[in-house]
Specification:
Helices cover 61% and strands 11% of the residues. The radius of gyration is 16 Å and the shape is globular. The chain has 195 residues and is of the alpha/beta class. Strands 2-3-1-4-5 form a 5-stranded parallel sheet, sandwiched between helices. Helix 4 packs parallel to helix 5. The protein has 8 helices and 5 strands. The structure holds adenosine monophosphate (AMP).
């Protein structure tokens, strides 16, 4: 499955909880980039240029990183991608990777929240964690990119009939309850159809 949402919508937090409850691995492209930045790897040095200003890391770099991660053994029983795909080109690339593996997506979960709430949360996170891409100008740019590019991704999955939307405003446990209820129905449907 995929979890998609604007920056600050709580994707990472909810992804960890879904991963624990469903027993599938959560893969966050943002976390992999941050680990590489921290480790000073060539990938991290390249990615940091884009992350610091709130731009997307180029598709070619991101796609290859995801392909490599999905070639590891722990994804065999399913996986949850957090923060990927974010562009139409990434959707096409992922479709190709999954088709070659004989896999398909069961559910795409979108967490929703309005921009003012997101900016408020992200500025709070900036004070707590000191993430370098959590200042107001960069936050606004990341939100713009989400509206311009990632909402098209969401629309594509809506057309495919696998999109489930969940309101991301509220307490963390409350949102987790909504998420688990929302994904239970598509999972049961997909199991029943033998997918
Ligand atoms: P996140 O933690 O998901 O908000 O991601 C942090 C940053 O990593 C983003 O602002 C981008 O610079 C980069 N990033 C994460 N996922 C992607 C992706 N799928 N495509 C391009 N850049 C990404």
């Amino acid at each position: 499955m995929l979890i998609i949402g604007p920056p600050g919508s709580g994707k990472g937090t909810q992804a960890e909880r879904i991963s624990e409850r469903l027993g599938v691995v959560a893969i966050s492209t943002g976390d992999i980039f941050r680990a590489n930045v921290k480790g000073g790897t060539p990938l991290g040095i390249e990615a940091k240029k884009y992350m610091d200003v709130g731009d997307f890391v180029p598709d070619s770099v991101t796609n290859e990183m995801v392909r490599s991660r999905l070639s590891q053994d722990d994804v065999e029983n399913g996986f949850l991608l957090d923060g990927y795909p974010r562009t139409a080109a990434q959707v096409d690339y992922l479709d190709g990777v999954l088709a070659r593996r004989g896999q398909q997506l069961d559910v795409v979960l979108q967490l929703t929240a309005d921009d003012d709430e997101l900016v408020r949360r992200l500025l709070g996170r900036a004070r707590e964690t000191g993430r370098s891409d959590d200042n107001e100008a960069v936050i606004r740019h990341r939100l713009d990119l989400y509206h311009e590019q990632t909402e098209k991704v969401v629309a594509k999955y809506a057309e495919g009939g696998i999109l489930t939307q969940v309101d991301g405003i509220g307490g963390i446990d409350e949102v987790t309850d909504r998420v688990m209820a929302a994904i239970a129905a598509p999972r049961i449907a997909s199991l029943a159809s033998g997918r």
